[in-house]
């Protein structure tokens, strides 16, 4: 794909490239790129961040950690996500993580002492107090809520983005402090082992 048509900067519809919802996503990206003057969006639609995965244009010594260090924002706006830790893995690199309120990892970050500006939580369901209400929402209502909340989220994200080296350093230090409180050792000590003890005494 890389040698034939310049993947991942350019894409073609169909296997082994764009499939399913990737096609719609690429159309949005293409429209954005056609009008953007200073930046371009690139869709890497496979796992990996090295020369083997991304082609000969990728520097030979590039690793996935370089992607983490170079990211300003990580989006994980799931509509259903019982936990899912991947959305907040970049915290230690000072990346702002944007997740939805249904992501269990948001509570884990907050329990570890993390929060804004390193973690932004988007709540698209706050107005739905019951399952019946959620099931009766129309597509027009849903799109209206998504648009309204996304606009507010964009403002919060813009305010959180670092404008100085000092602000970037603060994000890195706060993110690393939070990440240290989210190791498997801490999870076991603070949650898993106490749960086992409760089970033994119940």
Order of helices and strands: HHHHEEHEHHHH
- Quaternary class: single chain
Low-confidence stretches: none
Largest sheet: 3 strands, parallel
Number of helices: 9
Distance, first to last CA? 59 Å
Number of strands: 3
How much helix is in the residues? 40-55%
Strand order of the largest sheet: 1-2-3
Strand content: 5-15%
- Rg on CA atoms, Å: 20 Å
Q: What is the domain total for the residues?
A: 2
The assigned structural class equals: mainly alpha
Q: Round the mean pLDDT to the nearest integer and report it.
A: 90
Shape: globular
Structure, described:
With 202 residues, the protein is mostly helical. It folds into two domains: 1-62, no CATH class; 71-174, no CATH class. The protein contains nine helices and three strands. It has helices spanning 2-5, 21-35, 51-54, 64-70, 104-111, 131-135, 139-160, 165-180, 184-201, and strands at 73-76, 96-100, 119-122. The protein has a three-stranded parallel sheet with strand order 1-2-3, sandwiched between helices. The longest helix has 22 residues, at 139-160. The radius of gyration is 20 Å and the shape is globular.
In short, what is this structure?
By secondary structure, the protein is mainly alpha-helical. The chain contains 9 helices and 3 strands.
List the helices and strands and how they pair.
Layout: H1 2-5, H2 21-35, H3 51-54, H4 64-70, E1 73-76, E2 96-100, H5 104-111, E3 119-122, H6 131-135, H7 139-160, H8 165-180, H9 184-201
Parallel strand pairs: 1-2, 2-3
Features:
9 helices; 3-stranded parallel β-sheet; single chain; 2 domains; 202 residues; 3 strands; mainly alpha; 6% strand
């Amino acid at each position: 794909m890389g040698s034939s048509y310049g993947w991942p900067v350019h894409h073609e519809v169909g296997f082994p490239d764009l499939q399913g919802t990737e096609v719609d996503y690429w159309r949005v990206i293409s429209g954005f790129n056609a009008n953007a003057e200073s930046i371009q969006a690139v869709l890497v639609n496979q796992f990996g961040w090295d020369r083997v995965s991304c082609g000969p244009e990728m520097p030979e010594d590039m690793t996935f950690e370089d992607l983490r260090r170079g990211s300003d924002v990580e989006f994980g706006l799931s509509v259903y996500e019982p936990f899912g830790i991947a959305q907040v893995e970049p915290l230690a690199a000072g990346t702002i993580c944007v997740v939805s309120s249904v992501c269990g990892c948001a509570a884990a970050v907050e329990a570890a002492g993390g929060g804004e500006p390193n973690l932004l939580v988007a709540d698209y369901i706050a107005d739905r107090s019951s399952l019946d209400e959620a099931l009766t929402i129309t597509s027009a209502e849903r799109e209206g809520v998504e648009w309204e909340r996304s606009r507010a989220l964009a403002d919060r994200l813009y305010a959180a983005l670092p404008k100085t080296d000092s602000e970037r350093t603060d994000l890195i230090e706060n993110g690393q402090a939070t990440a240290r409180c989210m190791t498997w050792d801490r999870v076991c000590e603070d949650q898993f082992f106490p749960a086992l003890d409760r089970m033994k005494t119940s």
